[in-house]
Each structure stands twice: as C-alpha cells, then as structure tokens.
Amino acid sequence: MNRISRSKLQISWIALVALVAGCDAASPPAFRLNMVEAVSRETSPEYQREIANVLGALFGTPDEPFALPVTGLDGAKLRMAAGPAWSDEKGTTVGLYRKHCVHCHGITGDGRGPTARFLNPYPRDYRLGVYKFKSTFNPAKPTDDDLHRVLVNGVPGTAMPSFALLPGSEVEALLEYVKYLSFRGQMETQLISYVYDELGEEEEEDENGNLVPIPAPFDPASDGDQREAVMDMLADVVAEWEAAGEQIVVPTEATIPADERSPEEILTAIEAGRELFYGKRANCATCHGPTALGDGQQDDQDSWNKAHKVFLVETARQAESIETREAQAGLDAAGQQLLSADRAVFGVWRKVADSLYKTRNAIPRNLRQGVYRGGRRRIDIFHRLYAGVAGTPMPASGPASPGAQGTLTEAEMWHIVDYVLSLPYEPPSQPLQALPVNVGEVL
Amino acid sequence: MKRFWSLLFLLVPIGGVATFVAAPYFQIWLPEDVSEHGRTIDDLFKFILYLTGIVFIITESALFYFSWRYDATTNADPVKYSHGSHALELVWTILPAVTLLFIAVFQMEAWARAKMKPPNIAPLVEVTGRQFNWDFRYPGPDNKLYTADDIVRTDGKLYLPVNEEVLMKITSADVLHSFFLPNLRLKQDVIPGMDQSMWFKAKKTGGYDIVCAELCGWGHYKMKGRVYFLPRDKFDEKLKEMRQEQDTMRVEVPEEEE
Amino acid sequence: MTTSPFKWIAQGVAWRFGSFVALGLSLVAGCQRGEELGPLASSADARRIREAFTSGSGEASSGAETVSTGTGWATLKGQFLFDGTPPQMEPYGVNRDQATCAAGGTAPLEETVLVDPETMGLANVAIYLRRANRVHESAQASDDTMIFDQKACVFLSHVFPLTLGQTVDIKNSDPVGHNTKISGKNGFNQIIPAGGSVQLKPQKEEAVPMPVDCSIHPWMRAYFLPRENGYYAVTGKDGSFEIANVPAGEELEFQVWHESARGRGGPLALGTPQAKELKWKKGRFKIRLDENEEKELRITVPASALGR
Q: For domain C71-96+109-140+229-308, which architecture applies?
C-alpha cells in the first residue's frame, strides 16, 4: 500500500471511531419509577406503566414540568429550574436543577445521580418527603425556610455545598423544584399502594378452575372513582406540606437562657446538661457514646438505608429459599410450579437489588468535631433535640405534635445544648476512643 | 504557493505576541490586584514575560528565516555540512543558564515573603476545604480555635479586615484542595492532615473570588466562594453579627399569607 | 492488499490497524450505560389523563357506592393453626444494656413465627375488617387509654391494634431508656424515659400493621395497627381470635396479616384448598354472616406460607 492510501485508511479509521463514540445520541432524560417500592408491592409491569402515565399527567417530565393548581407550586419557578441548562441573552440561567443538583440527586430526585455512589453520606432521596434538618416537629414536613437554609448553608460534614453565591431567585426556583420532586415521589408511593390495595379485585375462573385475578385498568381518564381517589391522595400530600408552617417548633420565651450569662451560670447549665446527657431520661450517651464520639449504638439505619436493606435481605432470603428447594429431590408438581413462579419473581427482585448501593448503618454523630450538619446556631441544636432528626434513629425529646406530651422540658434541652457546645475538640487525625475499662463506670 | 509552510509558521510568533498585546482589551489579562505584595508578584511576572518574550521573538524569527530561506521548493543550493561550533554551543548554553539562575535568585525573596515567613500574629480564620465547599471558622472572642465560642460559616462568604496583615490557617477535610485568591495572587495547596497558612494584607475593600485550584473531584469546578474585605470596625461588627446569629435561640415564624 | 501479510506485519501496518480497532472498541464499550429499570411514561397517555384532571371531563365518579346493608350483628371467631414443624426461634443479638436486656446471659428470642406446641396455634396473626358501613357501639373508640409497654427490652404487645380516637400510653418499664419509633402515617420517634411513659393519639388509619422499633436497642420489634373501628383481633398464644358485633347481612371483607407471611411479612397469602373455598386473595377473604350468627373458622397455615 503506498503512503497516501495508507494514511487515507488511517484517517478513515479515526473518523469511524469518532463517529461510533459520538453515536450515543442523548435521549431526553425521563423520570423513572421507584422500583424498590413497585417491586415490594408486587406492581405488575402493566400497572407500572399506568402509574408512570398518571405521574406524567400530574407532574410532567423533567423537561416540561407541570403542577396542578391544588399543589400550590409556582409554575414559573419550576420552569426555571427544569429542563436542560442554558442561559439566555440577559444571562438568566434556566435548567438550574440539572446544572447544580442532578449529578448527585438524580433526575428523579432519588439521590442516585451518577456521582452519588461515591459519597458518604448518600445524597438525599426526595421521594419519601422526609427531610432531616428542619425546624418543625418530628413527623412534619420542612418549611420553605428550612429548605432555603440548607441550600444557602450547605450541609457541613457532607458533600452538600452551599449555594449562597447564586442569586436569590435561583435558590427559590431550586427549592420549589425540590418540593415538586417530593410531591411526585410521595404521590408515586400512594399510587402504588392504591393500585395494590384497591385494584385487581375482580376474579374469574380459568380452565383449571383456579381463580385468576383480572387486573382492573388504572386509568383515571376513564374512571371517575379512580380520578377522585387520585385527587384525594394529592390533596393529602399537599396538606401535609402546607401544614408545615403551623408545625414550627418555637421555643418558649421563658425557658430561653439569657443572652448575657455569667460564667457561673454557664457552668451550672453545662453541668446540668452533662447530667442529662448521661442520665436515663435523655439517654444521649447510649448512642453518642460515653465520650460523645458517636461510638455507642451503631447498629441502626436511617429510613432510606433501612428500606434498601429490607429489600436486599428479602432478595437474599428468596435466593436461599429457591436454592434449598432446588437442592431438594422429589418436589411434586405443585411444588415445581411454585418454584418456577418464585424464580420469576426472584429474577425481578434481583435486578432491582443489583442496582442498589451498599447500605450503611446510621453512625451516631461524633459531637466532638465541631461539625453540626443541621447548623451550629443554638436554635439549630435545640431543634435537633426537641424534634429529633426525622428519618434517622435520633429521637425527639419534645412532643411529637403541638400539644402532645414531651419527655424533657425545654429548659433541660437548653442545658444539653450548652453541654454539647462545650465538648472538647477531638482532631480527626488523632481519633480517641473511650477506654473499655471506663464504659461500665460511666454508663 | 511557494514557501507556504514557512509563511504559515510566521503566524506563530506574530499571533503569540498579538494575543498578549490584545489581552487586556478583552479582559483576559491579570485580574485586579488588591494585595500589598501583589505588586511584586505582578512585576516579577511581567519581567519574566518580557524577558522570555524577547527570546521568543528572536528564536522564532530565526526559525522563520531559516525555513523561508532554505525552503526546498525554491532553494536549489547544494547542501552544506557543518561540524558545529564549540564556541556557539557554549554561548547559547551558558547565557540561558545564567538568565534562569538570575530569575531563580531574583524571585526568592518574593516567594519567601509570601510562603516561608509567616507573621507572628494570631490566625484570624481557619479555612477548611471539603468536597465541594469552603467552610470558615473564626476563633471568636477568646481567640482560640475549636472552643465553644467559634463562629462557623458554611455559606462560602469569608469576611476579613482590609489594610491589616491577616494570617489564615488552611486545612482540608478530605482530599487535596487549593485555596486560591486570584485577586491577591495567592494560592495554597492543602494536603489532608497538614496545616498550612496564608498571610497577606489587602488594600481595597470589596468582594473578590475564592476558587479551588487543585482538582479535588467532580465538583472542583464549582467549589467557589467570595471573600469580602471590610474596614476593621465593620469587620468587628460583622463578626459580632455572625456570633449573635449563631447564638440565636428564637425562631422566626413567617407571617400567615392569606 | 498488494503486499503479502508477512510484509504487512513487518511494516507495522497490522499494529496500527489493530490499535485503531482496539481504540474504537474501547470507545464503544465505554459508551455503555447502566441499564435503567422500570417503564417510561407515554406522553400521549399522560396528555389524555391530564386532560381529564384539568378539564374534569371523562366519566364522572359513580358517587356513593350502593351497598346492601343488613341489620343486626354477628360474631366471627376461630383459630389459626400451623401446619408443619414449629420453627425454633433464634435469640436476638443484644449489644447494649446487657444487664437489663439479656439478664442472666440469655437474650430474648425472636417472635417472627410463634407456634404453640400443644395446640399448634399460630400467634400474632392480625385479622381485621377492611371497611365497615355500620359500627357497633362496642367497636367504637372508647375513652380508656391503651397501654403499650416494654420490659426487658421486649415490646410486651407484639402486634398492637387500636381504634382511632383512643389514646395509647407508651410505657417503659425498664431501668434503661428506650426510644419508640413508629413508622407509617402516624410517624413517631420519641425518647421514653426509664420508668416513664408518653401518651400518643394516632390520627390516621393504616392499611397494614406498621413496624415499631427502638434505636437504642435495634433488635426490638413490634407492629402497630390503628384502625377506624374496633373490628380487629390479634390471635393469642393458642392462635384463637374473636371479633364480636360485626355487621350482619352484608358482605364483609377481612384482611389477614402476619409478620412472616411469605418470609417478608404482609398479607397472609394462602393457596390451600380451604383458602380457595373462602376465595382467599391477597390475604383477604369475604364472608357474609347472618344476624346473631357465631361463625367459627379454623384456618390452617402451611409452613411454606410463612417462608419456612
């Protein structure tokens, strides 16, 4: 081959390779179903499609969001946050969610963006509608202000950065979009439950005389009852969020410590806080450890990890059950039928299980590093004590709702705040451990 | 066209010089300098730029001349072989070596002042880089870090006094980062576990950029902050304000909208 | 090729060729994405459904369901029996407060499948009416406070039903603190001090019993079932239950639940001939009782239905 035709061949190879590499034409991103929920609740593929359609009707797509007026979401803000990221001539950025959030939080807000698996802790999954750092009672939703605070301050100690440098309007648009994703996620769970509980009731006998369920189609367009049920569910979800403003924990003025306190007063408060920390009423030391290093009870998980762990445990149990039965000789016809049915079910479970990240235990916070994820203001730490941290093992010491019965008094909680803020700093490069010999005496 | 390639090559030195000449008009030159020592650094930069620029023009022009004069399409002279010139080799080795040595020694003082001789003052703030945010910790009234009265800010806004020598500690919470203040001509890489310092005196109030200058992960590009220089009294006020905010024990309940 | 293959290799063309192929394949391979699970919404269907929601067109709801109501009351009772070898329950791993929770070195046993060896009765099966049109006085919320206690790091009521409107007193009879965490619509997670109690008034009904645990002692487990009416029962040690004063003369749908149904907990799915007779589906069965009838059901639960 002479020089010219050989170089032509090489150039054409390069061109072909480049073509193939660029051939992966980007399809527009789309919302996907919460497969852990759908598979746990045995939603059939037809129902999954129908649920996806209803969610598409109620909430639109990542490029074109939609919200019914009853949700109270601002369409202009949603449109600013949704869609591909670009800026117009005036410099206004559109597609903010995809620009700033999607790589961790995922297009569906499920906390499974491309970079999520490398983070500890995992990014928040909005679909449960549970948020940790808020100023409201434990079971209540966060207020807009709470979400705003998380966006502006970030969450120190995690990979969530601060977005304080964005203009205020962009931060508002992002927080509206986060709420929108939560509404969508919560509706998804409700629809999956509804389909499981209410539909598929009719049955008929097939040729073997077995009763086979006839799945009723889930189509609110043609069935008024279903439409009403869906609107009721949406109203319930929205009501919880709208009620957040009334569920703010406001400390009683009388119990708030004075702004200027003498060193003796502060010391007394710290001492009282210390008593409570190690006492049997607040029980802080049982989880946070005898020296507040977070080395107490480490065997529990937060709700996001727990749901996945339960799913993985069940998948493993199914695998084991199938293996045992396959190893058994002499399975009768009914047993064989059951085994093949179980194998099909297991196939579906296993696919979803393989896509999940490794679950992690909820390690109690090390209070000696001066890093307070929900904020370092005294009121922030007070809120963590009063209402606990929703979705995690951290319990509330105050009432669960306005007017309910609490465990500690507010004055006691302020004492614990003083104690926690006074804990000595432990540098992360030289971690300390409570001596085993001391534990029995301290606790 | 004859001697096309050598003429094309001539565009390299012309383009190179033209870019530098035109840069300030397109706002792609050095950012505004608001520090005391920045002048030294910028002067050093310009000195080295001009020195190497002159050498660049000379060598590129020589390269152009030779490729133009001896282009194969127009030059029919027979090839002449040379055994080299020992003297020429010596000259063009020693001259650049001396120049480089000169530059190395010339800039030592500037480097030492910016990097090796911290002032003997208490640190005003500790900067912690984490993926992908800058967190700031002020020591509070007791001037000791990691005590109960520290002020911790995570919103990427750093406040410092102007016209004062400032010492900052810089640490990393997880991976390599580099705290870069372009408008103060200062940059400090941090290795996790290592404490570094940065000191300077800012001469102008206002808000300037903080960026991360060491690839630290996928969010490196957006690891930004803002540093604000305030007069000392306003700075003290700001610290007090932040301290009070941290001591907040009350909640603002938004007005009911009807 | 005009040259022979050997010359080709010698000239290095083969290496270049091969390296391009390798490069191309690696680029293509790198472009693979992880498989996305689940369906995509169809935009045409979504549009159609959205039309229905926004314009209010389409079939109107059928309004109140016409259900035939009967008169009088009846009683449903019976027993759940386990068919198989009663499984051995394993002790929990107690890693905290061993003095209280594993006194004498013995940890409490799991309660996932509790079978009474004498009667073969299956305990902790929850059976409750899904919807009631009429509710007898005795099945309405009373003013007494229900007690939900925990002792020796075990919840004393493993499956705890209650009627909405009642208050539950969550007690802690241990010398150590517990924090009782209730999942579901009546979310609750509060510290219960040692020897103390906290009152709770649930507001929302659950379709299935929700888990209750403790964070300090994560092995603890119970189930909580708030219902609108009192038509529920949890089988006792011998597997027996009784639900009195259910509406007679109407079709009643009962839900049966067990925490180990099919291994993972949930509606108790049964495929036995007895269940087929009752048209047992998703752990539910329908029954119609005559006035003042006392129907007795003895339901056998095979070990496979509980994942054993």
A: Sandwich (2.60)
